[in-house]
Amino acid sequence: MEELFNAHLPGGQTPDIELCIFPHLKEFLAIDLRGGAPQVLLLRTEDIFVEDFYKTVEAEFSLEIRDETDFPFAHFINLPLRLEEVVRETAMTFILEKLGVYLDGEMEIPTVVVFVVSGGALATQSKSVIDGLRELVNNHSGEPIEEQWESTITRLVEEENRVLQKLSRHELHAAMASESPDYFTLWENRN
User: What is the DSSP letter of 46?
Assistant: First the structure.
């Protein structure tokens, strides 16, 4: 599991910035490897998803909706994918700005690797995920992991795991009560 957090770019280079996103939490880790000593930062989504973020997403998506095309139905069918791209690109821009990187055309864009810490591997191998994240921070800090990051990493993984378990129980309950369109029995046809 630890090798999952061993990001190397083509040619063996390491990225400039590594992000560890916990999709169900309002905090995430950023490891900034640019320049001098690497920095490990705990960032909050409320500092990224500010009013300007939403205005930017709305403006970009408005342009996407109104884009002239020879294939209007295909264009509208693909809008969910474009919305995802707009949100991802805008979020990355705002995260980079929080890290002091302003994409004004003159600065070289840093390489960024994003680890999404969630799902089945987290549920079944939390200890391995914690060890992998600890190793990631250790590798870049050059010294044993500080106690603050040890407890922060453990807390984030445990909280993400708790939310996943709660969501799973909720989905199972909804399925048993036939309240979920995602589940069906062998004897049921919902078409």
Answer: H
**How many angstroms separate the CA atoms of 87 and 61, rounded?**
9
Q: How far apart are CA 29 and CA 141, in angstroms?
A: 14
Q: Is the pTM of this model over 0.85?
A: no
The DSSP symbol for 79 reads H
| Beta-bridge partners for 117 | none
The first and second tokens of residue 83, run together, are: 């919305």
Over residues 44-56, the pLDDT tens digits come to 999 999 999 999 9
CA distance 161 to 119: 8
- 186: pLDDT strictly greater than 80: no
Alpha carbons 128 and 130: distance in angstroms, whole number: 5
> CB of 34 within 8 A of CB of 41?
no
The strand ranges marked E within 4-111 are 17-21, 27-32, 39-44
Q: Which of 48, 54, 13 is nearest to 30 (CA)?
A: 48
Place of tokens 């770019």: 9
pLDDT tens, residue by residue, 62-92: 999 998 899 999 999 999 999 999 999 999 9
